[in-house]
Amino acid sequence: MDSPAPGPAAEASIDMAVADIEEAKAESRIYCGIFHGKKMIGVVSYVPSRFEFRPVDAFILLLMIIPPYRRKGIGGEVIGHIEKEICAKGRVKAIIGTLHVNNPDAIRFWQKHGYKVVGGPEVSPGKSTVYRLRKEIQQ
Ligand SMILES: CC(C)(COP(=O)(O)OP(=O)(O)OC[C@H]1O[C@@H](n2cnc3c(N)ncnc32)[C@H](O)[C@@H]1OP(=O)(O)O)[C@@H](O)C(=O)NCCC(=O)NCCS
Questions:
Q1: pLDDT-based confidence at 1, cuts 50/70/90?
Q2: How confident is the model over 57-66, as pLDDT tens digits?
Q3: Residue boundaries of the structural domains of the chain
Q4: Which of 34, 66, 103, 105 gets mutated to test ligand 1 (max ligand atoms within 8 A of its CB)?
Q5: Taking the model in full, what pTM does it have?
Q6: Element (DSSP H or E) covering residue 109
Q7: Which DSSP state fits 69?
Q8: Quick one: how far is CA 28 from the chain centroid?
């Protein structure tokens, strides 16, 4: 994907995507394409419940929309769908995420959708410097 990667590598690549898909399978993490008609315009990856064996926690690992489709409400719509799916299962009480510190646009995005910075900056297992995000779910 032709887009800056908000992580340790300067650019996202097909190899990175393939490695992440394999990791997602191993972790029972959902990895989905986001489509506009037949065109793939982004990806999202999340754990809908039982993140790190905690039944009450979900985790959003990645949301990326390609540049021409940003700022059109698509990212917000995707997050809305994921939250609805997570809430429908009934046990989850919080959605957790991490966010690269050098990504002020994304910080605004997550805050707009009710996510609070609750930790960091800290070095993630993937060696990025991140903030920790959290949104409490009202069931
Ligand atoms: C962050 C991202 C997922 C947001 O998706 P999107 O479809 O562009 O977001 P939406 O259109 O639904 O929401 C836009 C809101 O996000 C924030 N935002 C997103 N991009 C912004 C930018 N470039 N400048 C300022 N605010 C921005 C604003 O709050 C904006 O609300 P506004 O338009 O009312 O000001 C997308 O920009 C992206 O893929 N960025 C690169 C990858 C990334 O950083 N992912 C997040 C970390 S996993």
A1: very low
A2: 999 999 999 9
A3: 14-136
A4: 105
A5: 0.88
A6: helix 104-112
A7: G
A8: 15
